[in-house]
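Supplementary Methods, section 5.1.

A reviewer requested that the exact input to the structure prediction be made available. We therefore reproduce it here, unchanged from the version used in the analyses.
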Amino acid sequence: METGPDTAPADASPRPPLVLVTGPSGAGRTTAINVLEDLDFEAIDNLPLRLVPGLVDAGGADRPLVLGLDPRNRDFSTEALVDLIDRLKARRSFETTVFYLDAKPEVLLRRFSETRRRHPLSPAESPELGVARELDLMRPIRDRADMLVDTSELNVHQLRAEVEQLFAPKGRMLAVALHSFSYKRGIPRSVDMVFDCRFLANPYWDPALRDYDGRDQVVQDHVRADARFQGFFDRVLDLTLSLLPAYREEGKSHFSIAFGCTGGQHRSVTLAETLAKALAREGQQVSIRHRELPGQQLK
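The structure derived from this sequence is encoded token-by-token as follows.
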């Protein structure tokens, strides 16, 4: 049997993934693409649609590929993107997945207002008009999605966790994500284990420490000086180290632990930073996210 770029023999090895990341501006496309790049995908964003088939053929099939496709693409149209999706799904060199990031219109508008970015579909007009135009353009693409994540209630760190859970290769080392947060804003979504740090001495009440946070040594020293700190931390570390192998055996690729305090600036940050260093010394793959400290916006 003859083979070509669109065919493969029956006994061919599993096809590597080709992930097409799309959705309205502000829903988290850029964040998702960055996460996939961290997962060893080759990432290309905003390529003209007409160049995609040639890129897929020329790039071979030895590495996962993620492409960002949206109305910013130079020759974008709804019909052109639908046609491209159909053509790529017919090819045998990659396993093509359409990954759609969505959000409620009011959330998209709020994100543009917070970042003061111009909407790409209404650069000289109101963001409201751009959001409405784009959602209308993307509706047929949304209907073609193989995976859809609504990011309306997610922050950048929660979206990262969602993408990792969906796309992290089987057998990959379990990734541990540590979070700090303020109870005033509620417990983060989709965390596996939560610890309350509000019983520890609060640096906020020391005027000399109030403007620092738990990443600073002076704050960490203050929190660790509490006689209850070390016993609490040792138990958290022992529990974590005992659970991680069990979750890995169950096939889980991501495990998240959150520490909360009143303001999310001092005690919870100190615990997350301290546990991250301890787990790294044990050879664990660790990331750390402080929800209440300045960070990225979804894009």
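The first strand starts at residue 17 and ends at 22. These observations are discussed further in the main text.
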